[in-house]
Specification:
The protein is mainly α and 187 residues long. It has 3 helices and no strands. The longest helix is centred in the middle third of the chain and has 134 residues, at 33-166.
């Protein structure tokens, strides 16, 4: 590349004196070309160096910082998501455990209630049976007293009827036997 650059520069230097006296278009005036080329090259090199060492590294740093920030945010988001998932699993596990415990407590309360109600029912049945037996005994006593009273009144009434109708005194043992048989039939 330097060969061609030197060739172009030498051409302008040799051709320059030949065209310097001629008047014509300023764009075709070769005497101004070396200064234009020099300043163009100097401008391009300075712009290249400015872009390469100042502007591009700053843009690159901003892009790298932004990418690093995004990567850090993604890592934090993944960590937070994992933590929230773990917390959700723990909460769900505790909720399931609580449901199981509540169900077992309800079942225990129901079984205790059934046992207590059965005990109370058995106790009431025993008391009721005792009262029924006592009532039956009382009824039996009353029945025997009433039957005895009926027997006595029947005996007196029968004795009186026999005496009044036939003027005969009745045989007490025979009358007692007949009345006892009739009472047995009734009871």
């Amino acid at each position: 590349m330097f060969k061609y650059f030197n060739l172009v520069l030498l051409t302008f230097l040799f051709v320059n004196p030949a065209y310097s006296e001629a008047k014509g278009l300023p764009q075709l005036d070769f005497t101004t070309y070396p200064s234009l080329i020099f300043w163009s090259i100097l401008s391009l090199i300075s712009l290249y160096l400015l872009m390469a060492y100042v502007i591009t590294p700053k843009i690159s740093n901003v892009i790298n910082d932004r990418e690093q920030h995004l990567q850090n945010d993604l890592i934090k988001a993944k960590a937070l998501k994992k933590e929230s998932d773990d917390t959700l699993q723990k909460v769900n596990a505790q909720l399931d455990q609580t449901k199981i415990e509540a169900k077992s407590l309800i079942e225990k309360a129901i079984s205790d209630s059934q046992i207590n109600s059965e005990k109370i029912l058995n106790s009431l049945n025993l008391k009721l049976n005792e009262k029924i037996e006592k009532s039956l005994k009382d009824i039996s006593k009353e029945k025997s007293l009433v039957l005895k009273d009926i027997f006595n009144q029947t005996f007196e009434l029968s004795n009186l009827v026999i005496y009044k109708t036939s003027n005969i005194k009745s045989d007490k043992t025979k009358l007692t036997d007949i009345l006892k048989q009739q009472i047995k039939i009734l009871s």
